[in-house]
Specification:
mainly beta; seven-stranded mixed β-sheet; 3 helices; 19 strands; elongated
Length: about 300
């Protein structure tokens, strides 16, 4: 047999094999066909209240992995798509997969996050704080969620809808040091806060890992009161307290890790940790947990 005839025979055999593989999804027998379905993204707050339409989630990147943790697809959803609850159509080519794992990350613009094209395995995913000299000003309002779904077979009709619920992975902190400058003898110089510490990375499963980092938030000094407007942090370890340092020209002049009532500076994911230090008279420290973006109103008498 000539080389040309051999190539023609191999091509014909390949086409015949492909036709046989696909026939169950092209004819009346759909027993081997993976069923398509729709996937929705739902965002909830710390109280499990639906906040999908709030606009808090500006962007979601959805990764799809097979049962071996290998990438199948990656889809980017903008703020409008999330807010409008636009579904993602999941359509699998024959012969499909046993199961799919969906991993959704929201608001990754402010963290070190792998480029979509570089992700080949589930283990390639992470969200790492962008730190300089071991310090961060603020984390992004990060969301995360995952879902594993067994693939249904036997029809080309859509299977039931699925939903990936994403939740915040960050906490908020607000700090106010009332009459700090007067307490420190009205010295002229640079007053600042340093909050320490948390781990700097979420792994592919949304668990904290990595190395410890401090937070040096943007501050403002007015009438002797030093304030750090609301900033975001990764949480501390379970039950562990933040330590707050107040610095003058880079030197620590005051340290605290709990309130006057003994309540530790422990952040809660999805909520706001208020730390208010009143330096008038005897120093008093107040620790209050409030809902996201709701600053405790401390009355200065």
């Amino acid at each position: 047999m000539s080389n040309a005839k051999k190539k023609s025979f191999l091509l014909a055999a390949t086409l015949l094999l492909l036709t046989g593989l696909l026939s169950s999804c092209l004819k009346e027998d759909f027993s081997d066909c993976p069923r398509p379905f729709r996937l929705f993204i739902k965002a909830v707050d710390a109280d499990e209240k639906d906040i999908t339409e709030s606009g808090d989630v500006q962007q979601v990147i959805l990764f799809v992995f097979n049962e071996n943790g290998e990438i199948v697809d990656a889809v980017l959803l903008d703020a409008a798509a999330v807010k409008s609850r636009k579904p993602v159509d999941i359509k699998l080519d024959y012969p499909g997969h046993q199961s799919l794992t969906f991993v959704a990350w929201g608001n990754t613009g402010g963290v070190d996050f792998p480029d979509k094209a570089s992700v080949k395995q589930l283990s390639d995913l992470y969200a790492k704080l962008k730190a300089q000299s071991g310090a961060v000003q603020s984390a992004s309002d990060l969301f995360y969620g995952n879902l594993s779904v067994p693939v249904e077979y036997g029809s080309i009709e859509p299977a039931g809808d699925q939903t990936v619920t994403i939740r915040r992975k960050t906490a908020q902190v607000f700090i106010s040091a009332i009459h700090l400058k007067q307490w420190y003898g009205n010295k002229e110089g640079n007053y600042s806060f340093r909050l320490k510490e948390s781990l700097n990375t979420y792994d592919q499963n949304g668990n904290l890992t990595g190395t410890a980092v401090n937070y040096i938030p943007v501050t403002q000094l007015q009438d002797g009161t030093l304030t750090a407007p609301v900033f975001n942090t990764y949480p501390t370890g379970s039950g562990q307290s933040y330590t707050l340092e107040i610095l003058f020209n880079g030197e620590v002049i005051y340290t605290a890790n709990k309130g006057s009532d003994g309540k530790a500076f422990v952040p809660e994911v999805g909520r706001l940790l208020n730390i208010i230090i009143d330096f008038r008279g005897g120093v008093s420290v107040m620790v209050v947990i409030t809902p996201w973006d709701v600053v405790h109103q401390y009355v200065v008498i």
